[in-house]
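stage 2 :: seqdesign
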């Protein structure tokens, strides 16, 4: 009998506790405060939207991404790829359709979490910077300026790049290798384990510094130009570009394309140096990249400044922009698709906050 009383008391307490919790959540909802579970769900939705945006946009331009990397690291004395059209034709002829998408699986495995972290970090950095800006100015209605958006984008880029850099490093090697390469990495995890075993853990972050320096203007300008253009168009309301308070899909794509073009043009030389530094320590890189004609010294860099110096000295300043044309062709649709896909997926998932809010 006593045990029944205990069970009844426990059940009663549990029911009361549940009612109290529901009442508290209802109160928080009425006051505009989200319950912890709601906040977690919102974060997950935001991460999913960013990941989908990255995967879709990168797969759409995978052939151009691979050609860009091959152009960046090829030997100037043994030219195989002379441009976008010729390069794509050469890959198709020598490696077939699958060659155009070589390394895309690894690329997506890197870009999906990178994109998820990048978009989410930008949202959080924007909220934090906006809060501090309003506190400093004393204006509760103040909005982010293009410069503040640049700062938020830079923070997001650094966080996302650092979190996923080892994947980017092995993706570069997987993309460069061909069927005739002496060393064959069998996949992401085989490449990671091989580099760790033969070159040490520091090798996974080789080229990190120019990557981080490059990502500051690249991601920062992407977000700043995209959002500032959207705001300007909504405020000025040019004929045919704005429907009520929403931009048309075509206009959003154009904003994304402009943002990507500006960002990648500024940061591109650092991307070339990063890619070359990632090849350091790979003893088969000379054969893989350029055949036997490439000197060993050209693959040895003591750091970012040394890599810049040797590249310009041996190949000229133009070498810092190798692969820029296919990269430009790639960036225009890629960034545009990424931003628009992100907003569409967030609308579908019902996430309240959007990057322009």
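stage 2 :: out
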């Amino acid at each position: 009998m006593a045990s029944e009383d205990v069970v009844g008391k426990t059940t009663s307490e549990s029911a009361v506790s549940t009612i109290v919790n529901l009442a508290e959540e209802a109160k928080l909802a009425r006051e505009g405060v989200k319950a912890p579970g709601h906040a977690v769900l919102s974060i997950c939705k935001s991460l999913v939207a960013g990941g989908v945006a990255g995967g879709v946009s990168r797969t759409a331009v995978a052939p151009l991404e691979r050609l860009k990397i091959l152009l960046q690291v090829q030997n100037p004395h043994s030219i195989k790829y002379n441009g976008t059209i010729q390069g794509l034709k050469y890959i198709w002829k020598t490696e077939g359709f699958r060659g155009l998408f070589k390394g895309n699986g690894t690329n997506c495995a890197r870009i999906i979490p990178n994109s998820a972290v990048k978009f989410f970090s930008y949202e959080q950095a924007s909220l934090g910077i906006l809060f501090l800006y309003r506190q400093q100015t004393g204006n509760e209605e103040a909005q982010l300026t293009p410069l503040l958006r640049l700062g938020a984008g830079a923070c997001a880029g650094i966080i996302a790049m650092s979190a996923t850099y080892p994947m980017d490093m092995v993706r570069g090697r997987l993309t460069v290798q061909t069927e005739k390469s002496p060393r064959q990495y069998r996949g992401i995890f085989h490449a990671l384990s091989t580099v760790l075993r033969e070159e040490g853990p520091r090798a996974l972050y080789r080229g990190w510094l120019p990557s981080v320096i490059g990502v500051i203007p690249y991601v920062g300008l992407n977000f700043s130009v995209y959002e500032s253009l959207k705001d300007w168009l909504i405020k000025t309301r040019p004929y045919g570009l704005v429907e009520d308070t929403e931009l048309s899909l075509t206009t959003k794509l154009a904003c994304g394309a402009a943002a990507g073009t500006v960002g990648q043009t500024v940061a591109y030389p650092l991307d070339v140096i990063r890619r070359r530094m990632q090849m350091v320590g790979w003893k088969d890189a000379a054969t893989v990249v350029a055949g036997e004609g490439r000197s060993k010294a050209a693959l040895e860099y003591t750091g970012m400044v040394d890599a810049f110096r040797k590249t310009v000295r041996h190949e000229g300043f133009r070498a810092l922009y190798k692969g820029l044309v296919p990269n430009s062709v790639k960036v225009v649709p890629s960034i545009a698709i990424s931003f628009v896909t992100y907003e569409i997926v967030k609308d579908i998932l019902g996430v309240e906050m959007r990057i322009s809010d």
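stage 3 :: structure notes
- Residues 1-11, 25-33, 286-298 have pLDDT under 50 and may be disordered.
- The longest helix spans residues 104-137.
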